[in-house]
Structure formats: C-alpha cells, structure tokens
Amino acid sequence: MSFVETRAESIQTLSSVASDAPHIMQAEDTPLINKQRSDLCSRCCQWLWGRCWRPKELKSRTITVGRLAAEKYPANVIRNQKYNVITFLPLVLFQQFKFFLNLYFLVMATSQFIPDIRIGYLYTYWGPLTFVLTVTICREAVDDIRRHQRDKEVNCQRYVRLLSDGSKESIPSSKIKVGDLIIVEKNQRVPADMVLVRTTERSGACFVRTDQLDGETDWKLRLAVPGTQKLAHDKDLFEIQATLYAEKPQKDIHSFIGTFNRIDGTPTEESLDVENTLWANCVVASGTALGLVVYTGSETRSVMNNSAPRSKVGQLDMEVNQITKVLFGAVITLALVMMCLKGFNGPWYRYTFRFILLFSYIIPISLRVNLDMGKAFYSWAMQRDPTIPGTVVRSTTIPEELGRVSYLLSDKTGTLTQNEMIFKKLHLGTVSYGTETFEEVVLHLRKAFDKQQQSEMRGLSSGKARRSELSRVLEAVKALALCHNVTPTYESNDRSENGSDEVEADQHTSQEVVYQASSPDEVALVKWTEESGLALIHRDLTTMQLRTPNGAVLNYTILQIFPFTSETKRMGIIVKEESTGEITFYLKGADVVMSGIVQYNDWLEEECGNMAREGLRTLVVAKKTLSEEQYYDFEVRYNAARMSVSERVVRVAAVVETIEREMELLSVTGVEDRLQDGVRPTLELLRNAGIKIWMLTGDKLETATCIAKSSRLVARTQSLHIFRNVVNRTEAHLELNAFRKKQDCALVITGDSLEICLQFYQHEFMEVACSSPAVVCCRCSPTQKAQVVKLIQEHTGKRTVAVGDGGNDVSMIQAADAGVGIEGREGRQASLAADFSIPQFSYLQRLLLVHGRRSYKRSAALSQFVIHRGLIISTMQAVFSSVFYFSSVALYQGFLMVGYATVYTMFPVFSLVLDKDVSSKIALTYPELYKELSKGRSLSFKTFFSWVLISIFQGGIIMYGALILFEDDFIHIVAISFTALVLTELTMVALTVRTWHYLMVLAELVSLAIYILSLILLRGYFDSEFIQTPQFLWKVSVITLVTCLPLYILKFLRRKFSPPIYSKLS
Asked: What is an example of a GO molecular function annotated in this UniProt entry (predicted)?
C-alpha cells in the first residue's frame, strides 16, 4: 500500500470517528442503570478478554504535530515490580511451596493441628518452617520495595512539556503521552521514544549516549527534522499544519521508518530514519532537544528489548533436590517397615503418619537456609577479595557453578582485547608505512601542501598520469581525514560565530580535542591523521574543516553520508571542496566487500591477509570523483528511494550501489586492538585446568585466528584447522570428515559455515567440535553465540561460563550456566546482565580456580553435614521406637528438637563455609587440581551413601549405648544420648575441617558453652543431680569416643595409603 493510500485511509477513519462522536457522547451520557444487563455483561467480558488474554496488536500511527493523539496508547510508566499489595503474599508462598522440601514440611507442620497424630509441641515443626518463610518473605519484600522505589524514581522524573501558547509546564515522566512535545536538557534521560524536531544547535545536530540501550559508550549523532528545525520559534510548531507518520513499534533499535508531511503552504514531504530519533533511556549529551513523542511505555524500543533472563539453578541445587527425593523415599520406607513390624492393627494409617512425622527430620528444613546463607557468604568473599578489586556478584544463587566449569566461551573485542585501537600500518600498494616510518608520512604531507600552495599539485590530483608517492600519501591521508562519522568536541563550547576560519582554527589549537564516534576504529584513524598533520577541527551537519600542516584550513561541504551497517560492511561519504568545487565520493570497508568495488589490482587480497595475520583490523579505502551532473542525478534517485515507505532499505542500497563501481583504491589501513593485561597466562592456566575455551566473535576470520594464536588460546604445540566455507550438505559432510581425521587440532569456523553444519549435521559437528582442544567461531551473530552455548550444554551436559563486554554478548551470557560481564569500553550492558561482573579478563583465573573451587567444595560439605545431622537423629528415633515396642513416641520433646538443629550445632556446621582444602597460591600454581571438580565427586550418590552409613553407625551406637548404660530413669537416656549426640556432631565437624579458622574454634566453644548452660537451666529435660555425677561424664565420653574414634582411624589410614591429590601438594 502506498503512503498516499495509507494517509487517505487514516483521514477516512478519523472522519468516521468524528461523525460518530455525537452518538458516542450520547451513549456516555445515558445512565448506567437504564442499560441492559446482558449488554453490560457482554462489554465487561469483552473488556476483560481484551485486557488480560488477547495479544496486543501493534499499529503504525500518524500524529498531528502540536496535538495529542486521539487513539489510546500505553501509559509511559516503567514497572519492574514482581508483586503488588494483594499478590505479594500468595505469590511468595506459591514460589516457596513449589519446592518439594518446603511443601513436605508444610504438610508435616499442618498435620500437628490434628490431635490424634500430634507428636509434640507445635513449635517443634512450625518454628523452623516459620523462620525459613519469614527470612524469605522479608528478603522478597525488601527486593520488591527497592524495585518499586527505583521505578518510582524513574516515573516521577520531571520533564518540561511545551504548550500551545508557547508556555512550558513540568510534568512527571508517567504523564507523558503520544503527541506531546517534550524538552530534554543536556545530560537528561530521554523519557519515551521521540522524533527529534528541534535542537538548540542551528544545524539541527544533537549528540546522544546510548550505552544503556546498546552497550556502546561512544556518542551518536542525531538530526532534527529539517522542516521543523528551520522554524523561528518552538511555539511555531503549534501554528503549522503537519503530520508525522511512524511505523508500528519494533524491537530493532537501529532502524526506523517514518515521514514528515507539511500540509499548509507549499506541501513538503521529508523522509525520517533512525538518525531523527531519540529512543527512551538514551541521554542527551550536547545541547537541548525538543522531541515529539511517538511511542510510550511498553511500546518503546528499550522495553520491547527487555527479555526476562532465565532463572538459573545451580547443578549442586539440582543434586541436593535429587538427594532430598531419595530421603523422602527413605522416610516412607522406614515408616512402612516400622508398621510391618508393629502390625497393621487398629488405626494403622494414624500410626503410619505418626512414624512419617517422627522420621521427617531425615529431610532437614535447615538445608535450604544453610545453603542460601553459604552462597551469600561466598558472594561476599568474592567482592571483598583485594586481589580482584571491582568484582561484583549480581546473582548470589550460583557461585558453586564457577567451581565446575568445563567450557569457557569468550568474546574477543573488549574481552580478550582492550578495544583500544592504535593505528599501526598504512599500505598504498607500492609502499607501506608502519609505526617506525610514520615520520615519513608527516614529511610527505608537509611537502605536498607546500607544493599545493604554490599550485604545483593541480595536475597530479587528476589521477590521469601516474601518481607520485607524494600525491598518493596526500590522497590516502585526506580520505582517512574525511571519510568517517567522527565529531571533534572541545572543553569550551564557546565558539566565535563571526570570526574567520583561521581565527576559529587558532582557538581550537589551544583547546584539548576529544573525538566522538560510534566506532573506536574511526577515532584511531582520525587521531592518526591529526598526528600526521591533517587535523579535523570542526564538523557539523553539513560542513567539515581540516587544518593542514602549514596552518591553512580546508573547508568541505558534506553532501551525503552512508553509515556503516553490519549488512553493507562499509561506510561512505560524498563531500565537496569549497575552494575547488570538486565533488568526491569516499568509501571504506571490509576487504570482502571492497574487493568487488575497487578497480582491478594484484595486491589488495595479499596485503589484507598479511595484516590480518599480524592481528590487525583492516579497512580498504577508495574514492571516486563525481561531476556535478553525476551527483545531481544520483541525488534525485537517492531522495526518491529514501521517501519510500515500503522496502526503503533495499531501494536506498540499490541506488547507492550505482556509484560504488570502479572506484580508485587508495590504501589499506591496519589498526591493532591490544590484548588485555594477563590474557595469555590466564588462558594457559584455564586450559591446564581442563577447561576448553571457545572464542565467539563477530570479527573476520584472519583477525580472529591471529588473536587466537597471540593470546595462547591455541597452544604452541597445537595446529589449526580452518573450516572452509560450505554452502550445502555435501560440502559440510566432506569438511567434517576432513577435520575428524586430525588429532589435537583447534577448529576455526565462520558463522555461515556453522549455520550449514548445524542445519544438517548438528550432532556430528558438536561431537567433533567438543573433542577439539579449542574452537574459534568468527563472523558470529549474537543469536548464534547463544545457540552455541545451548548446544554445548545439551550435547555434553557440562557446565559452561560465558564472558563478554558488549550488548551483543548479553544473549550468550544469559544462556550460559554462569555469565561473566566485563566492564569495558562498550558500556555496562553485559556487566549488568551478567551473574558476575569483573573489571578485566585476568580476574577469571582467581574467580574460577580459587573462589569457584571453594564455593563448590564448601557447599558440598555443608549440605552433606546438614543431611548427616538429620539422618543421625532419625536413626536414633528408629532404634528407640523399635526397642520400645514400635511405639510412635518422640525420643526428644519440644526445645531439644528445635535446639539440636539451631543453637547447639548450627554455628559449627555453618563454619564449614570457612574451610579450604588448599591455599589460593596452590590452587593457582597447580591448576590441574581443578579438573577433578568437573566430575562432581564432592557431592554424589557415592558420598551421600557413605554419610548415610556413618549416620546409621553413629546413631545406632549412641542409642544402644545410652540404653545399655542407663540405670534408673528414662530421663537419664535422654541426658546421656542427647549429650553424646551434640558432642559427636561437634567432634565430626572438627574431624571434617581441613584448614582451621579462628571463627571455627570460636563456633565450637560457643556451641559447647551454650549446651552446658542448657544442661543447668533446662531442668525439665535433664536431671540436674545426675548430670553432675562422674557416671554421666564417663558414659557420655565412652559413647562419643566409640562413635568418632573408628572414623578418625579410617580417615587417618586413608590419608596415609590413598591421600587426595591436594594433600600431596600441601
């Protein structure tokens, strides 16, 4: 449908709405009581359906400038809260009782309200459950209140709205509507998606920072609509008759299709694209902007791109959950065995349930609390580690994942490299200049401009004769100084408007210049031209100024700019030199596309390959001189293509391609992206730790290969297999077979070939790739990066960690089991989306080999000890019940049951989070120790069943020992067995500890002191006279010794004859 037809349809729709307005108003004025009930119900149902379930339809819109939109659009509010006052408690409780452990204890605790199956006091079951739920509810409430406060702060930010009489009013962000004219000051956040209609700069230019939107820290140039920028005053916007068409809301932040139509006076139609927009959450970096709101709330680009990250659950949590289910099976089995021995007589189901309640402590409710508190401690320790300052843990639920990593997937630019570009090489075909010979370029430029002043270079610049080295250097450097999107900014913004160019140039000489551009490559090139003598001193929407080595100023008019895109892989500009009137089209881009655009030559491909092997990022620079007739013909066709509403991008590209033919090749540039500090030793250390490293990058194959070698991603002893480009199934099959025959060989593959392999041979490709020591995927899209992560997880079942620094790495980071973001030059988007944030790549070695190791080992020991604590008391209960005629009576009543898992044993057991098997120095010196962790042997069914046997042995010894040694009263059994139980737990913690910490000793002593105090004060549970006798002391000592001494002997023998690897190093 053409734009005219769309406009006609919109006008017709508006007319029909206007004609129906009296009827609508009449219906509104009708009292509700007179309406039919069926009609009311029908409307309510339709409203509820549309509000809650019907998918929302996104529509394009035509907005009249200066008037609010008639249609209803989403409110401009940001809401990140999970709950409201009504839903908070139900949803939090649902989230908690979704877990098997909590649901099980809820059923157990609720059953205590039934008198027939009540075991003891209500608080013995409800106390621990209430404590766990209270901690969780408070944590969720605090988190949600913080989210609400952040939302409120954003929604209440004040903005200035322009009114029809020219006055201004201050309104909160939440009150902004489609059609409003909003003024955004410098350093202020843009509150909604807007089209830029006016700026304080006469040229209509405005810079914005988009780091919170796309992760890029460089400033972006935005342009006001020419038809509104040329108005005398802001209030004139309400006096003109104009409409603005905007496409339906899209996710793509890099494109926009719209048109501006002025109906009064001489009708004009102007094309709008992404350069005319201000997206929500951008920040205005220069001047003041006046924007027309086109999208609000949930229809803004930033909100539409917010995808909820998957909720990550650690493998250790899943293993604990499996063990919990086994324990539940043990509870049911034990209860049924007791019933079989007792006999199914009388109300057997009541007795069965009482036995289930008695043995319910096999599944410890404190397990989840202990693990969560442990994780919080590990996260705190990571952030407080002085050797890795600046580390931030954003997800405290998965620190153990860092201890079991098998695959590390890393971005290249900004992650392995610094994203700090340095110009290294300029090749002109016959001569090459490097860092050592750049002085020659400076001398050539001085000579060239001196001769040009004397009018001796006129003939040489025509290109007809064979050009001298001097002119080739001049043309190459001039092309680099003009073909870019860089804008120089100065500390002082006060510019002399009436001064001459020379005066202005002199002013800039004394000021420090800062170059702003969306690409660090372009900044590196422009900085180098300045160092060479040809400096960019001023740029606005339509003009550019260069200062020559001899101080003269060259003025250029910018006629057209063709920005770089990932599809075209090139950037172009058409400029007109004011002094000569010469129109020149400059183009620079990747060699893969430029080789088909420039004139035939025999050196381009070879030199690009050489530079790539040196690890340099290459750009091919070319030019074409246009006559005025050629340019005006192109301009007419280009403007027509830009006005099209449908297939605009395709039509514009087709027109631009008509002048991208037979261009003159000027030079090839090489820019170095430096490796980050400590990248080589870190990668080598991680590889020795058994971690396979994959590099996923959007860069070209040659550069990626060179960085892989220079960073030691590929070991010196390993060879490289470059997977050739394949386009069909047969080629993919042959190439896979060729790679399968190679041993200990790293794989390099492009994104296109990867797509073909995954389409036809997904399983086979993943098999050979995962067996390779290292893999480099170049020309990868963000979606492909996330896809590779998921395929590794599915194919191997191993744990993955993804590392990146830019917005294009977010999907990969969120897909991995643990995501690590690096705060780099590309902004904080990856850092904010990651589970862990670090300032530099080298911190990974300590994060994984030290903190990851300790988190996993400690959590495994803690979870098994908490389970042991429940198993031993349940074993004692089973022995007690079986001895006393299978009675379903609790061995320990009231506070003893609660105190056992809390005040008596909690501190020593939790102090295991301070234990460490090896020092950080040994962990980093011998990274091979890390290999054992990926096998998951610290917490497995084997270790679990060994703890079950220990619990049965110790529980049986304590209970039978107490029964044999007790003499007079039942209370003596309780005193002897419970004291032996507590002392056994404290001794077992001491036997488990590998490296003592002063807090561990303190925890043991405090717990022992609390228990001794309890023996004295709790006269209802203990016979105060009996516990003071020598008989009590020797009986408890003998039982404790019998329970712990055999285990100590076994541990000693094992360390003597089959020591663990780490003990040999210690």
From this structure: ATPase-coupled intramembrane lipid transporter activity
